[in-house]
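Input sequence (683 aa), recorded before submission:
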Amino acid sequence: MQSPTKTVFTGVVRPAYGAKTVLKEKFVEIYESFFKGNDPSAGQPNFWSELFLLKVNATYLTKCLSEISQDQLLAIKNNIGKLFLKSIEAMKEENSQRKINAMETLCVLLQGIFSKRFNNFSFEVINLLTGLNNADTVFPRLVDTIKYLMKYGEITEVRHEALRLAIVVVCGNNNINQNSINGYFMKNDIFDSLIELIITPKMSHMAYEAIMLLDILANYNKHESKNPYLIKLIDIKDEAVFEKIMDVVSSTCIKCQSQYIEIQEDDETNKYLVSTVMSYVGSILPWYGNGTRKHSNVSDPELAFVRLPSANIAILLAFYDMVNNNKRFVDHIVKSIAKFSIPAKSNVNEYDSATVSEDDKKSMEIVRDGPYFCDFLSLSSYLLQHNRTNRTASYANLILLILVILVEDATLNEVICEDERRFIVRLCRQRPPLLQNARFPRPLIGVILDVVIGFINHNLRRKLQTDLYSMALGVIHRLISYLKRNRVRLPYHWSELWHSLIGLLKFILSNIEHFQQDRASVNEVLLSAINIINLSITFGDTFFPDPISYDNLFYEIVRAKETFEGLNRIVNKTNFTKPGSPTKSTFQKPTSSSSSQFDVLSNINTICTHFHLKIEAWKLTNRVRSITPEQFYSIINTNYDTLELVTPEKLDHYTPYSEIPYNVPLLRQVLRVIVDDFKKREI
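Predicted structure, token format:
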């Protein structure tokens, strides 16, 4: 009889006669034994070398770790520790595939362990992985190896896997400050390795993750101790780093914004673009009275909106930290805006193929692309109008803080106000009330005002987000203060601002009984809105483009007479302007001796009373019961001379933004949301 052919082990387990053949890959067979508490490496000197040549079955390994309890993990602690240590050793081998497999094994292993609920996260995780006595030996070795492979890995995959492993370790706990393993990344920082990944062109697909990891590390216990990443982040001077960060922020904003538009198209397409599309597709693009069109593939738009933005929006934390900590980065944003402009002779207010010259069309294509900052503003308008969850509130906080910081910068204010630097920025028009559709080139200050007004109009709820409203009003206050101080006349639909501010005041007045628990914060919002109106009443002549803008302001104030009378009752019970009164806000009340005695509604009351009497007298003289808006404007315009107002001091003063101390708790909470999202990122 001929002897059987000799074969190499293939992972086939021979069943009993008549049974079906069961296939079990070698990786599964090893880890099955491993998790039963056996040591498959016993007596096999080449075991670990061969194991890390096997393709990692991440699905199976993840399943094993998800099904095992914490007690069972502790029971096989020796196996876990050995696997952890041997994986770190394999990361130093010459064979690239062994390095990659070892790091992938560590990623899955650590993610599985980190997902468990530990009473003391750091203590129990370190005890499981290395034992407490060996932690100061093993973890520095891990960090050092990650650092080396990220910078000098022989192939791209090695560098990317090292980055991924670092992310898994650092983000093991959503509260990164409670993950003491991160302390080892402070003692031996990987800053330079991350910067190299960010700026190296062939590593551009890793830039998002590298930027995020750097920023998360820069937030680790940054208020309790010296953080080397934050120190170096503050000192970054390389324009290539700034450029790459803004490129990543911009591309992420564009992607996130497109997801809102996929749910509901909201572009009131102008004539020029309609004609272009018509010539291209040979059909008519429908127009809509309310500027909205629901996407045909979305059955429940509201539910779809709640799920947005995607997890990649976590990049806003890095944008905030760069804006808040690195003045050179803000200067880079200013330069990126200043690079773009349209011809001074151009006076284009809409796309109209019949009247727009070819040169202007080209210019408008440039400003539609514009600087990276425009993409941030566009996404901001969508997110702020669809702010319905605690998660989106975290990102709304970041957006408004970024805007507060930026509009405190004099050089940025100068460039966003310059008429020769005009841009077309698509803003959200998916929820009523809709702002005027300003799809024409204009200075970015108008865009920023529209973004903030959009927030004010679309977040009026009984559980009022007073912190967000204080920031939104702070942005407006800073912008108007700049216009006033520099006597910059801004063509803008100012009436939209008055509608929003008075609408906010009316909403608070109507729901004041629901705000008793948070009355101090609500009062602060009231004061901020009233001060913006006071600033415009007193100094509007320095920044309104024409007299009609003043007429519009007074018209809206007089129309809202009943609202202001109701606010008088609230103000009389609340000492808004008591000098030295404590406030958690960064938005300062008037502080001069004269303004401290100023009734915040004094000028508004005077205007209401003065013009109400004039209107009643006019109606009596002309024997009419009501008047038209045109007659209303005429009465206002002819009775300014007899109006006597006081001029309070320092209405344009504010306390510059500072993260410490009041915003520290907020940003720690936001950081947890960011880390959670970053772990769900789509790459």
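Checked by second reader. The beta strands are 12-13, 22-23, 264-265, 293-294.
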